[in-house]
Amino acid sequence: MGSVGIAAWISHIVFWVLILRGYLTESLSLRGSIIFAMLWLVPNVSLSFVPSAAPFFSPYVAVLDIVLVFLLFRGDVRLT
Question: In angstroms, rounded to a whole number, what is the distance separating the alpha carbons of residues 80 and 63?
Fold first, then answer.
């Protein structure tokens, strides 16, 4: 699996946790949750039609994670 596979799993898990957190805390409406789920689902389904696109899906999900963090936390998360 390696570090790339682990990073892909982390980005997918964080994506769904952020969608759920945004919906439960009402930072993200139902419509917004559906839009982000569709932004994840459409490229995921289309991977079977474009075989060379598979390596680009995990970074795409990571970008969606970044956008969700900016939307839910109104900016970047401070670590200190």
Answer: 23
